[in-house]
Amino acid sequence: MMQFADIFSLAFRTIRGNKLRTGLTVSIIAFGIMALIGIITAIQAMNQKLTESFSTMGANGFTIRYKQRNIQFGQGGGRNNSEMKLSQKGKRKERTSNLDKKITIQQAELFVDSFQFPSTIGIGISGGRNSIISYETRKTSPNIFLLGGDENYLALNGFAVEVGRNFNRLDIQSGRNVCLLGYDVANKLFKQGLQGSVNKIVRINSIPYRVLGVLESRGSSFGFSRDNVVLTTYTNMQRNFNTGGSYNIAIQASDINQVPAAMGEAEGLFRSIRRLNTTEQSNFVLDRADSVAEKAMNSLGFLTISATVIGLITLIGAAIGLMNIMLVSVSERTREVGLIKAIGGKRRSVSRQFLLEAIIISILGAFFGIILGVAVGNLFSFVLKTGFVVPWNWVFYGIVICTGVGLAAGIYPARKAGKLNPIEALRYE
Question: Is residue 208 part of a domain?
Answer without folding.
Answer: yes
